[in-house]
Amino acid sequence: MTIRVRTIGSDEHLAFVAGRGSASFLQTPAWAAVKSEWRGESLGWFDGEALVGVGLVLYRQVPKLKRYLAYLPEGPVLDWSGDVAEALDALRTHLKGQGAFGIRMGPPVVTRRWEAATLKAALADEVLNRLGDVPADHTDDAAVALADRLRSLGWKEQSAEGGFSAGQPKYNFQIPLAGRTEDDVLAGMNQQWRRNIRKAAKQGVEVTEGGRDDLAEFHRVYVETAERDHFTPRPLSYFQTMWDAMTAEDPQRLRLYLAHHEGDLVASTTLVQVGTHAWYSYGASTTAKREVRGSNAVQWQMIRDSLAAGAEVYDLRGITDTIDAEDPHVGLLQFKVGTGGEAVEYLGEWDLAINRPLYAAFTAYMKRRG
Asked: Which PANTHER family match (predicted)?
């Protein structure tokens, strides 16, 4: 049979994801509503009448032209273990018909993994500067072969400066949960993490779940965090849109956590779960009362709830690839390593030019924008 790609409905898209066990939340129909500045489309891959893959594509328009970059963040949801040439050719044919001049995708395929003990040793090594230079504990040869296959099909890997490509992070940090208990996970954490969790409990930090009306309080602390850590915060309306879209798709898709100490909000986070994969999405904490360790308390509650909900992975999302003690970004990895999890390297994001002049012009335009 010849693989074909066509538009599908949200229900069919979601049913396929549910049957797979999990997929990135960026590949669910709700994400199109969150990214309302893009045009979204649910796609299905069909082998005859059988649905064999799905994807969410977001179209970004070129200024003044009805031409688009077609972006599939952390997708599509396909069987990446076989030869994907026919499936990707069908994707190209469909997207070209929709006016796309180029495609960007991020296959959800892990190439390498580094365990906590390896990372701890690498961070203490004064010679090593990059995670990519550290021998991995696990390497997936099939994933490495897939990268070679994509190159042979004309796809080009996007640069991942500092571990971050043009869209999603190439390096993530995850805590494996499958087959483990709360005690197992806690025992895997370093002494500092366990001490901070105990201290938060002793100090009376209370972690509760909030609703849509609590997003304003979360956002207040989030803006404070942005000012302290020097990043541009998203507006409250963004989180309200995310809440509405994702909880409409599944009431448990997005959850808000609030850590209070003596009535004061000291930390707040959002958790996303699709099937067996849970993600720490956004986090915020106050400068005041940092000593009560609200951030550790809220993370521990999210991990416990993820375990209870059947998650097999708790994903702390992106890290840079630096392990240089002098690099200010290294603190993010040091914080996450304390959870006893592992660093994972994904295949990264890949582009295919359909209209080469337009693709080149768009790439140059985006670089100028910074």
From this structure: LIPID II:GLYCINE GLYCYLTRANSFERASE
